[in-house]
Amino acid sequence: MMLTRTAIRGWLGALAGAAALTMLAGCAKSEPEAVGPPPAMRRLTEQQYRNTIRDVFGPGIVVVGRFDPITREGGLLAVGASAASITPSGFERFGELAESIADQVVAPANRDYGLPCKPADAKAPDAACAKQIFAASGRLLYRRALTEGELARFLALGEKVSVELGDFYQGIAFGLSAMLQSPEFLFVTDATEPDPAAPGKLRLTAHARASRLSFFLWNSTPDDLLLAAAEAGELDSREGLAKQSQRLLESPRLEEGVRAFFSDVLTLDAFDQMQKDATIYPSFGLTVAEDAREQLLRTIVGHLLVDGEDYRELFTTRRAPVSGGLGMIYAMPVTDPNGWSEVEFPKDSPYRGIVTLPGFSALHSHAGRSSPTLRGRAVRELLMCQRVPDPPSNVDFSQFNKASATKVATARERLDIHNTEKACASCHKITDPIGLALEHFDGAAQFRTVENDVVIDTRGELDGVKYDDASGLGEALARSPAVTQCVVNRALSYARGRAVGKNDNAMVAWLHEKFESDGFRLRGLLESIATSEAFYAVSAPKADPGTTPPAKTAALDGTATPENRS
């Protein structure tokens, strides 16, 4: 049996085309009426879990363990988290992880950071200190104050263990372990209450608003100030939400939230499974692969947050940080071989824009060769929000395989042969002209001018805009309305944990209009979402007689003992 309910969700369809949104934008002068979805539950992502443990208990706590994967929906793991549950084996792993973390928290080296008090006697129960510890930790882990019943159960468990083992801190460890295994921690819940301004309707509670805001902008649990604002009723007004949103947006921690957003949008979790043939690409090892991911994120953060530049210029910028390992990929010296060097590629350099960086072009390639189709599909789906259908199961690949085996000169020629198969041609014509513009970069993003001793032809076309090479592709992307509309679509979906649907077209158009009027600055887009009614809107849940509440852990039911903790 699964641990939790499957949250009400659904992919409502792709965002309407650029022309329709542009028309709507002309009418969207004030925020459209918000139509919220039913309340849902979202499982913490692995990074949110790690960030929360660090923020609550300190950076010295080591989180080592495997997490049940979350299935990407609507292009985002953040949306898939609303449908994610925990398998019995996954819950067992969470239990082991919880015990490891709790033991570290109460260890002498970490107590001063993670625990707000010390017992009168470390070998006996201390109800006052235990209450202070459980209340403080529980408030941050549960993203709200513990109820009297919850606090009483943790205190009873802690006292029982402390007496049996003669160790106050072991009692605390058992209580914290129980918290960390609880659905109240592992799932972010859209708690609701009657809306006093709209009789018969619901609104998110202040604590639920705090959680939504913090995970959106910081990718972590709400801090003490945000929870205090929720407890004081400040988040029940747009003014209070705007004040806290501004605080989070001005914090250095915003960088972590932006990194999480673009890691999700650009599917950078795929680096964990990426493999390159070491015989063909000896320079592209594990360290370089990690540097490639980091370079892409540093470029995005530096351009959008540090410099506050136009989002569209990500596709034409010549600036990027380069590590010593990436210097080998670029065949260029770097000023700091052991760190990062800020580089501005010259005007005649082929490296221009994020799609030419290894974090994009090498990721969307095969182990031993480039792939115009994979790269073109990535541009369409990740940067333009345009779904490319999967190939039919009965496609005949014999012509392509024959061409590859006989070393037909270039990828363009091999694809031309493959596309004589009618079932393939319709999709390849929207992906390959994009990917072929990147063929000067091999499967490891190293520059080349020939393939099999034949000069590579990088001419292509994006939605009627023709170009000669990757630089021209970047300019075409920078001018494409679909690109800016896509990042708005993804940002709203990511923030709310549900895919944008047709009913959201007016909201997306309104956000895009504000984004455009602000010079396509990311910080302004994030602020528009964080302070909008749509971000917090919720409707009454639909009746589901088959739904049962999440199971409680044994520890929360008071049945855990030192003997059955394993």
How would you sum up this structure in a few lines?
This protein has 566 residues and is mainly alpha-helical. 48% of the residues lie in helices and 6% in strands.
Describe, in plain words, how this protein is organized in 3D.
The protein has about 575 residues and is mainly alpha-helical. Among the domains are: about 40-190, no CATH class; about 190-250, no CATH class. Helix content is about 50%, strand content about 5%. It contains 25 helices and ten strands. Strands 1-2 form a two-stranded antiparallel ribbon. A two-stranded antiparallel ribbon has the order 3-4. Strand 9 and strand 10 (about 465) form a beta hairpin. The chain is globular, with a radius of gyration of 26 Å. The model is unreliable at about 1-30 and about 545-565 (pLDDT under 50).
Q: What gap, in angstroms, lies between the N and C termini?
A: 21 Å
Number of helical elements = 25
Share in helix: 40-55%
Question: Tally of extended strands?
Answer: 10
Give the spatial strand order of the biggest sheet: 1-2
Query: What spatial form do the alpha-carbon principal axes imply?
Result: globular
Q: Mean pLDDT, rounded to whole units? A: 88
Beta-strand level of the residues, as a percent range? 5-15%
Low-confidence spans: pLDDT under 50, at least 5 residues?
1-28, 547-564
**Sheet with most strands:** 2 strands, antiparallel
**Helix/sheet category:** mainly alpha
**Rg result:** 26 Å
